[in-house]
C-alpha cells in the first residue's frame, strides 16, 4: 500500500519537500527583510533630522568654542572613519563567502568564514568606538553633536547585534556543524551584514562629507 493511499483526499503530502528553503521561500528571510526596511526608515528619519539641524545652524557645522583649542573649521576628521568604511567594504568578501558556503553546506568553509566575519565585526566596533572623537563634539554639546552621535551610535548598535549573532553561530558551527536550519540562519545573517555595510555608505557621506560641502 502506498503512503498516499493512507492519507485523506483533502490532505497534501508534503513529506518529500525540504524542511528548509532559502531566500524568498523562507519566512525567516522575509522577517529579516521587513525588519531591515524598518531600520532603513529609522535611519531615514535620522537623516531628515540631520538636514533639519543643518538648515537651522549657521555656520554649519558650528565652530567648537567651548574647549581648547578652538575649532572654527569643525568638520569631522576623515582618516579613521575612512579606515572604518574600508574595513566594512572589505568585510563583504568573507561575508559573501560565508553566504555561499552555507548554501553548499560546506562545514569547513563555514567555520573559517564565520570566524573571519566575526573578526571584521570586532574590528569595525573598535574603530567605531574611537571614531566618535572624529566628530569634535560630544553628544550633549549641541544639536549637531547629538544627531551625529545618534547616527553613529545607532549603526554601532547594529554592529553589536551582528557581533552577538556571529558569536552564537561561531559556537554552533564549531560544536554542531552546519546543519540545514543554521545554514539558513547563516545566509540571513549574511544579508543583515550586507545591509549594515550598505547603509553605512550613505551615512558616511552624510556625516563626513556633507559638512565639507556645506561649509
Give the CATH architecture.
Up-down Bundle
Indicate the mean pLDDT. Answer: 85
Report the major sheet.
none
- The parts where pLDDT drops under 50 for at least 5 residues are none
Q: Could you please say which CATH topology applies here?
A: Four Helix Bundle (Hemerythrin (Met), subunit A)
Q: What percent of residues adopt helix (DSSP H or I)? A: 55-70%
Distance between the termini: 81 Å
Derived structural class: mainly alpha
Q: State the shape.
A: elongated
Quick synopsis:
With 215 residues, the protein is mostly helical. It is 68% helix and 0% strand. The protein has helices at 27-55, 79-90, 92-104, 107-131, 143-175, 180-214.
Secondary structure layout plus pairing:
Blueprint: H1 27-55, H2 79-90, H3 92-104, H4 107-131, H5 143-175, H6 180-214
Helix pairs in contact: 1-5, 1-6, 2-4, 2-6, 3-4, 3-6, 4-5, 5-6
Overall description:
This protein has six helices and no strands. Helix 1 (27-55) runs antiparallel to helix 5, helix 2 packs antiparallel against helix 4 (107-131) and helix 3 runs antiparallel to helix 4. It has a single domain, classed as Cytochrome c oxidase, subunit III, four-helix bundle (Four Helix Bundle (Hemerythrin (Met), subunit A)). The protein has 215 residues and is mostly helical. It has helices spanning 27-55, 79-90, 92-104, 107-131, 143-175, 180-214. The model has no long low-confidence stretch (mean pLDDT 85).
